[in-house]
């Protein structure tokens, strides 16, 4: 049994943290497609790397432990992870999704799974009473993000899990923005947790990966079958990089959040800023719920400038902060959700849920906060010039 109680230690020593063959303190990259078997008919532990690989297995054991689940699964991207989870459902099933979710999640439901008659409905998951009334016999799951992408909307995860259990359906939480260091949905009763591990878990913008954790043995068997059958598995080298990234997750997120709290306060008090979305600010939507279910507000901020500021000039003027897709790396990144991460969502839907053309999403990095704020300040000043 591991000799630790806290997640800071589990990040480093959790799962399979040493190589059982050599004792190496880092699990090696088992760069092999197949394995020699001792005899015909004898069931080997390893047979083919789509089915199982020791490096990937170490990562899967690690994320299962960190999320306090029963089994973990590693995929080639966050979208591959979501696709595997949605493959649990059958034609005629419906999934309720949060009113603002990652555009890729919407796209795969709207453009891929719709072809197989697996449908979705966009709902306000922050209103639990209204949400429960939307559960009809064809609804088989509720899929939420909390905080959601990109408006940082907070949903009561324990409340959603309780509703799902009451109706005999699955609760699914995308925990990408928070990671198990800040929030553990399974502890709140959620059945399935998804991560785009490309983001904070990897942490260095050098790997694309997805992770899933389940808290039920039967569900784990079903997902293992889907993972092996569809084959969207994470490669050994990427699994190694992800394990390495997770080891520093705690110290990185502490700095990310420290910077984000200062950046959110700066933006909230800035005369050029019309609105700030950050669940760590008192008075923000879901502030008290987030305080109850998460360690803090995380490191993602969205905001809007006043109408007399040109966001194209703002993006162009940035020097330290990069305009780029993705989030959660050590470097600060901004994006324009309406034309980048959420472009797959129709204009009318974006407008109805608040993803306006003026919305800016900021992933606060671990640089000096003084340098981050100075860059934002000069870019805002440039964007307000006539």
Could you give the topology of this structure?
Blueprint: H1 7-13, H2 54-66, E1 71-75, H3 78-86, E2 94-98, H4 103-112, E3 119-123, H5 128-133, E4 139-145, H6 157-166, E5 170-174, H7 179-182, E6 192-196, E7 210-214, H8 217-230, H9 236-247, H10 249-268, E8 273-277, H11 287-293, E9 300-305, H12 311-317, E10 322-323, E11 333-335, H13 347-353, E12 359-363, H14 369-383
Parallel strand pairs: 2-3, 2-4, 4-5, 5-6, 10-11
Antiparallel strand pairs: 1-7, 6-7, 8-9, 9-12, 11-12
Key structural traits:
single chain, about 375 residues, alpha/beta, Aspartate Aminotransferase, domain 2, Aspartate Aminotransferase, domain 1, 5-stranded mixed β-sheet, 14 helices
CATH architecture label name of the largest domain:
3-Layer(aba) Sandwich
Number of beta-strand segments: 12
- Residue-averaged pLDDT: 95
Oligomer: single chain
Strand order of the largest sheet: 1-7-6-5-4-2-3
**SS content category:** alpha/beta
Helix run count: 14
The arrangement of helices and strands along the chain is HHEHEHEHEHEHEEHHHEHEHEEHEH
Number of domains: 2
* Unreliable stretches covering 5 or more consecutive residues: none
> What share of residues are in beta strands?
15-25%
CATH class of the largest domain: Alpha Beta
Named CATH topology of the largest domain: Aspartate Aminotransferase, domain 2
What is the approximate shape? globular
- What's the CATH H-level superfamily name of the largest domain? Type I PLP-dependent aspartate aminotransferase-like (Major domain)
Major sheet size, sense and barrel closure: 7 strands, mixed
């Amino acid at each position: 049994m591991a000799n630790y109680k806290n997640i800071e230690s589990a990040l480093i020593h959790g799962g399979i943290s040493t190589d059982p063959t050599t004792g190496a303190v880092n699990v090696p990259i088992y760069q092999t497609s197949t394995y020699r078997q001792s005899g015909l008919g004898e069931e080997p532990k390893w047979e083919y790397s789509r089915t199982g690989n020791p490096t990937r297995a170490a990562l899967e054991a690690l994320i299962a432990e960190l999320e306090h689940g029963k089994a973990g699964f590693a995929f080639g991207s966050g979208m591959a992870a979501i696709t595997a989870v949605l493959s649990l459902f059958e034609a005629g099933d419906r999934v309720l999704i949060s009113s603002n979710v990652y555009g890729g999640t919407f796209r795969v439901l709207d453009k891929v799974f719709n072809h197989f008659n697996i449908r979705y409905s966009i709902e306000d998951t922050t209103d639990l009473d209204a949400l429960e009334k939307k559960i009809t016999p064809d609804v088989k799951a509720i899929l939420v993000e909390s905080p959601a992408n990109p408006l940082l909307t907070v949903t009561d995860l324990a409340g959603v899990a309780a509703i799902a259990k009451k109706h005999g359906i699955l609760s699914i939480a995308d925990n990408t923005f928070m990671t198990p260091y800040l929030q553990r949905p399974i502890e709140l009763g959620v059945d399935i947790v998804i991560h785009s591990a490309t983001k904070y878990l990897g942490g260095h913008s050098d790997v694309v990966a997805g992770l899933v954790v389940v808290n039920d043995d039967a569900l784990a068997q079903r997902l293992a079958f889907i993972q092996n059958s569809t084959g969207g598995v994470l490669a050994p080298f990427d699994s190694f990089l992800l394990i390495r990234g997770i080891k520093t997750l705690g110290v990185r997120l502490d700095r990310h959040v420290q910077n984000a709290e200062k950046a959110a306060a700066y933006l909230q008090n800035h005369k050029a800023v019309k609105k700030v979305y950050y669940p760590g600010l008192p008075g923000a939507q879901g502030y008290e719920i987030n305080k109850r279910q998460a360690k803090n507000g995380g490191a993602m901020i969205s905001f809007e400038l006043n109408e007399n500021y040109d966001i194209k000039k703002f993006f162009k003027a940035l020097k330290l902060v990069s305009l780029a897709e993705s989030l959660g790396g050590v470097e600060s990144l901004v994006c324009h959700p309406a034309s980048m991460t959420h472009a797959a969502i129709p204009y009318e839907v974006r407008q109805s849920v608040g993803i306006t053309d003026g919305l800016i999403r900021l992933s606060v990095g671990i640089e000096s906060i003084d340098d981050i704020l100075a860059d934002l300040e000069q870019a805002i000043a440039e964007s307000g010039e006539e």
